[in-house]
Amino acid sequence: MNKVYANANEALEGVISDGMMIAAGGFGLCGIPELLLEAIKNSGAQNLTFASNNAGVDDFGIGILLQTKQVKKMISSYVGENAEFMRQYLSGELELEFNPQGTLAERMRAGGAGIPGFYTKTGVGTVIAEGKEHKDFNGETYILEEGIFADLAIVKAWKADDTGNLVFRKTARNFNVPAATCGKICIAEVEEIVPRGSLDPDSIHLPGIYVHRLIQGEHEKRIEQRTTRKKEEA
User: Fold this and answer.
1) Along the chain (234 residues), what's the average pLDDT of each consecutive run of 10 residues?
2) Which residue intervals of the chain are DSSP H helices?
3) Would you say 152 and 188 are in contact if contact means Cβ atoms under 8 Å apart?
4) Cβ pair 31, 172 in contact under 8 A
5) SS3 214
6) What's this model's pTM, rounded to 2 decimal places?
7) What is the predicted pLDDT for the residue at 233?
Protein backbone atom coordinates (compact mmCIF):
# COMPACT_ATOMS: atom_id res chain seq x y z
CA MET A 1 0.00 0.00 0.00
CA ASN A 2 1.55 3.31 -1.10
CA LYS A 3 0.98 5.91 1.59
CA VAL A 4 3.10 8.72 0.11
CA TYR A 5 1.29 11.42 -1.86
CA ALA A 6 2.77 14.25 -3.91
CA ASN A 7 1.14 17.07 -1.97
CA ALA A 8 -1.55 17.95 0.57
CA ASN A 9 -4.28 18.54 -2.02
CA GLU A 10 -3.78 15.05 -3.46
CA ALA A 11 -3.66 13.48 0.00
CA LEU A 12 -7.11 14.89 0.77
CA GLU A 13 -8.74 13.68 -2.47
CA GLY A 14 -11.69 11.42 -1.73
CA VAL A 15 -11.35 12.04 2.01
CA ILE A 16 -12.52 15.57 2.80
CA SER A 17 -16.23 16.41 2.76
CA ASP A 18 -18.74 18.80 4.30
CA GLY A 19 -19.76 18.26 7.92
CA MET A 20 -16.72 16.23 8.98
CA MET A 21 -15.18 16.11 12.43
CA ILE A 22 -11.43 16.62 12.13
CA ALA A 23 -8.89 16.05 14.90
CA ALA A 24 -5.87 18.30 14.39
CA GLY A 25 -2.53 18.11 16.17
CA GLY A 26 -0.54 21.08 17.34
CA PHE A 27 -0.32 23.53 20.23
CA GLY A 28 -0.38 27.21 19.37
CA LEU A 29 1.82 27.35 16.27
CA CYS A 30 3.99 24.41 17.35
CA GLY A 31 3.59 21.20 15.37
CA ILE A 32 0.48 22.23 13.44
CA PRO A 33 -0.37 20.54 10.11
CA GLU A 34 -0.23 23.81 8.16
CA LEU A 35 -0.06 22.29 4.66
CA LEU A 36 -3.09 20.09 5.22
CA LEU A 37 -5.04 22.99 6.73
CA GLU A 38 -4.31 25.06 3.64
CA ALA A 39 -5.46 22.15 1.46
CA ILE A 40 -8.70 21.87 3.47
CA LYS A 41 -9.24 25.56 2.83
CA ASN A 42 -8.67 24.98 -0.89
CA SER A 43 -11.15 22.09 -0.89
CA GLY A 44 -14.00 24.42 0.07
CA ALA A 45 -15.41 21.93 2.58
CA GLN A 46 -18.02 23.55 4.86
CA ASN A 47 -19.58 23.06 8.30
CA LEU A 48 -16.49 21.42 9.74
CA THR A 49 -15.96 20.53 13.39
CA PHE A 50 -12.38 20.69 14.65
CA ALA A 51 -11.06 19.02 17.78
CA SER A 52 -7.85 20.91 18.42
CA ASN A 53 -6.20 22.51 21.42
CA ASN A 54 -6.69 25.94 19.85
CA ALA A 55 -7.09 27.54 16.42
CA GLY A 56 -3.67 29.02 15.78
CA VAL A 57 -3.65 32.72 14.93
CA ASP A 58 -5.79 34.76 12.58
CA ASP A 59 -3.79 34.06 9.43
CA PHE A 60 -2.18 30.71 10.23
CA GLY A 61 -3.36 27.26 11.30
CA ILE A 62 -7.08 26.67 11.73
CA GLY A 63 -7.39 30.45 11.79
CA ILE A 64 -7.39 30.52 7.97
CA LEU A 65 -10.50 28.31 7.99
CA LEU A 66 -12.23 30.58 10.47
CA GLN A 67 -11.61 33.48 8.13
CA THR A 68 -13.39 31.65 5.30
CA LYS A 69 -16.24 30.54 7.62
CA GLN A 70 -15.60 26.85 6.90
CA VAL A 71 -15.65 25.88 10.60
CA LYS A 72 -18.97 25.31 12.36
CA LYS A 73 -17.67 24.16 15.75
CA MET A 74 -14.44 24.06 17.74
CA ILE A 75 -13.68 21.56 20.50
CA SER A 76 -10.78 23.34 22.17
CA SER A 77 -9.00 24.30 25.36
CA TYR A 78 -8.56 28.01 24.79
CA VAL A 79 -9.11 30.81 22.31
CA GLY A 80 -5.42 31.75 22.40
CA GLU A 81 -4.10 34.54 20.20
CA ASN A 82 -6.84 34.28 17.58
CA ALA A 83 -8.95 37.43 17.51
CA GLU A 84 -11.29 36.07 14.83
CA PHE A 85 -11.89 32.93 16.90
CA MET A 86 -12.89 35.12 19.84
CA ARG A 87 -15.04 37.40 17.69
CA GLN A 88 -16.99 34.55 16.09
CA TYR A 89 -17.54 32.85 19.45
CA LEU A 90 -18.75 36.00 21.21
CA SER A 91 -21.04 36.91 18.29
CA GLY A 92 -22.62 33.44 18.20
CA GLU A 93 -21.27 32.62 14.74
CA LEU A 94 -19.13 29.73 16.00
CA GLU A 95 -20.06 26.93 18.37
CA LEU A 96 -17.38 26.26 20.98
CA GLU A 97 -17.03 23.33 23.34
CA PHE A 98 -14.39 24.20 25.92
CA ASN A 99 -12.33 21.30 27.32
CA PRO A 100 -9.57 21.32 29.92
CA GLN A 101 -6.34 20.48 28.08
CA GLY A 102 -5.78 17.18 29.85
CA THR A 103 -9.40 16.18 29.25
CA LEU A 104 -9.14 17.00 25.55
CA ALA A 105 -5.95 14.97 25.19
CA GLU A 106 -7.51 12.04 27.02
CA ARG A 107 -10.70 12.24 24.94
CA MET A 108 -8.57 11.88 21.81
CA ARG A 109 -6.49 9.09 23.34
CA ALA A 110 -9.63 7.28 24.48
CA GLY A 111 -11.14 7.47 21.01
CA GLY A 112 -7.94 6.05 19.54
CA ALA A 113 -8.10 3.17 22.02
CA GLY A 114 -11.75 2.46 21.28
CA ILE A 115 -12.88 3.69 24.70
CA PRO A 116 -16.28 5.45 24.46
CA GLY A 117 -16.00 7.36 27.74
CA PHE A 118 -14.13 7.82 31.01
CA TYR A 119 -14.64 9.52 34.38
CA THR A 120 -12.51 12.44 35.57
CA LYS A 121 -12.55 14.84 38.51
CA THR A 122 -11.47 17.74 36.29
CA GLY A 123 -14.33 20.17 35.86
CA VAL A 124 -16.50 18.93 38.70
CA GLY A 125 -18.46 21.84 40.17
CA THR A 126 -17.86 24.09 37.14
CA VAL A 127 -19.73 24.86 33.92
CA ILE A 128 -17.71 22.05 32.31
CA ALA A 129 -19.77 19.55 34.31
CA GLU A 130 -23.18 20.91 33.31
CA GLY A 131 -25.33 18.28 31.60
CA LYS A 132 -22.78 15.49 32.15
CA GLU A 133 -23.26 12.30 34.11
CA HIS A 134 -21.85 12.42 37.65
CA LYS A 135 -20.69 9.37 39.58
CA ASP A 136 -19.02 8.86 42.95
CA PHE A 137 -15.96 6.65 43.41
CA ASN A 138 -14.55 6.17 46.92
CA GLY A 139 -16.36 9.24 48.15
CA GLU A 140 -15.18 11.50 45.30
CA THR A 141 -17.36 12.86 42.50
CA TYR A 142 -16.36 12.42 38.87
CA ILE A 143 -17.92 13.43 35.55
CA LEU A 144 -18.24 11.35 32.42
CA GLU A 145 -16.35 12.56 29.36
CA GLU A 146 -16.79 10.95 25.94
CA GLY A 147 -13.97 9.77 23.72
CA ILE A 148 -13.44 11.64 20.46
CA PHE A 149 -13.94 9.59 17.30
CA ALA A 150 -13.01 11.84 14.38
CA ASP A 151 -13.71 11.25 10.70
CA LEU A 152 -10.25 12.54 9.83
CA ALA A 153 -7.04 13.25 11.72
CA ILE A 154 -4.36 15.62 10.42
CA VAL A 155 -0.97 15.81 12.12
CA LYS A 156 2.52 17.24 11.64
CA ALA A 157 5.68 15.22 12.35
CA TRP A 158 9.41 15.68 11.92
CA LYS A 159 10.39 12.46 10.17
CA ALA A 160 8.65 9.43 8.69
CA ASP A 161 9.47 6.39 6.66
CA ASP A 162 7.28 5.38 3.74
CA THR A 163 5.23 3.02 5.92
CA GLY A 164 4.06 5.98 8.03
CA ASN A 165 6.13 5.45 11.18
CA LEU A 166 6.43 8.94 12.70
CA VAL A 167 9.00 10.75 14.81
CA PHE A 168 8.07 14.11 16.33
CA ARG A 169 10.48 16.89 17.28
CA LYS A 170 10.50 17.63 21.01
CA THR A 171 7.46 19.71 22.14
CA ALA A 172 6.01 19.59 18.61
CA ARG A 173 4.74 16.14 19.58
CA ASN A 174 2.08 17.76 21.84
CA PHE A 175 -1.45 16.77 20.72
CA ASN A 176 -0.30 15.11 17.51
CA VAL A 177 -0.10 11.54 18.81
CA PRO A 178 -3.56 11.33 20.43
CA ALA A 179 -5.09 13.26 17.51
CA ALA A 180 -3.61 10.82 15.00
CA THR A 181 -4.99 7.78 16.76
CA CYS A 182 -8.59 8.97 17.06
CA GLY A 183 -9.25 9.53 13.34
CA LYS A 184 -10.82 6.94 11.06
CA ILE A 185 -8.30 8.17 8.50
CA CYS A 186 -5.03 9.85 9.48
CA ILE A 187 -2.98 12.03 7.14
CA ALA A 188 0.47 13.16 8.29
CA GLU A 189 2.71 15.85 6.88
CA VAL A 190 6.41 15.65 7.64
CA GLU A 191 9.61 17.57 7.04
CA GLU A 192 11.50 14.51 5.84
CA ILE A 193 10.72 11.00 4.58
CA VAL A 194 13.62 8.64 5.21
CA PRO A 195 14.30 5.14 3.81
CA ARG A 196 12.40 2.25 5.33
CA GLY A 197 14.35 0.68 8.18
CA SER A 198 16.45 3.76 8.93
CA LEU A 199 14.40 4.87 11.93
CA ASP A 200 15.41 3.46 15.31
CA PRO A 201 12.36 1.45 16.44
CA ASP A 202 12.78 2.78 19.98
CA SER A 203 12.57 6.36 18.66
CA ILE A 204 9.27 5.97 16.81
CA HIS A 205 6.51 7.92 18.57
CA LEU A 206 3.59 6.78 16.41
CA PRO A 207 3.51 3.42 14.55
CA GLY A 208 2.67 3.53 10.87
CA ILE A 209 -0.44 1.41 11.40
CA TYR A 210 -2.23 4.62 12.43
CA VAL A 211 -1.15 6.61 9.35
CA HIS A 212 -3.01 6.13 6.06
CA ARG A 213 -1.56 8.93 3.94
CA LEU A 214 1.67 10.86 4.07
CA ILE A 215 3.19 13.96 2.47
CA GLN A 216 6.53 15.73 2.70
CA GLY A 217 6.74 19.51 2.43
CA GLU A 218 8.39 22.77 3.35
CA HIS A 219 7.12 24.31 6.57
CA GLU A 220 7.12 27.82 7.96
CA LYS A 221 8.74 28.14 11.38
CA ARG A 222 6.55 30.74 13.05
CA ILE A 223 6.91 32.07 16.59
CA GLU A 224 3.61 32.84 18.29
CA GLN A 225 4.98 35.28 20.87
CA ARG A 226 8.37 36.73 20.01
CA THR A 227 10.08 38.17 23.09
CA THR A 228 13.39 39.98 22.80
CA ARG A 229 15.51 42.27 24.91
CA LYS A 230 17.64 45.23 24.01
CA LYS A 231 21.26 44.58 23.14
CA GLU A 232 23.50 45.48 26.04
CA GLU A 233 26.04 48.21 25.48
CA ALA A 234 29.61 46.93 25.24
Assistant:
1) 96 98 95 97 98 92 96 92 90 95 98 98 96 98 98 98 97 97 98 97 97 95 83 78
2) 8-12, 34-43, 63-67, 83-90, 101-112, 176-181
3) no
4) yes
5) strand
6) 0.94
7) 77
- Hey, CA dihedral for 122, 124, 130, 133, is it positive or negative? positive
Determine the residue type at 222.
R
Given a contact cutoff of 8 angstroms between Cβ atoms, the answer to whether 70 and 32 are in contact is no
CA distance 118 to 97: 18
Q: What gap in Å lies between CA 89 and CA 55, rounded to an integer? A: 12
The span from the CA of 162 to the CA of 148, in Å, is 27
**pLDDT given at position 31:** 96
Round the CA-based radius of gyration of the chain to a whole number and report it. Answer: 18
Q: Are the CB atoms for 161 and 127 separated by under 8 Å? A: no
39 SS3 class = helix
Separation CA 106–CA 109 (nearest Å):
5
> How many other CB atoms are found less than 10 A from the CB of residue 169?
14
- End-to-end C-alpha distance for the chain, whole angstroms: 61
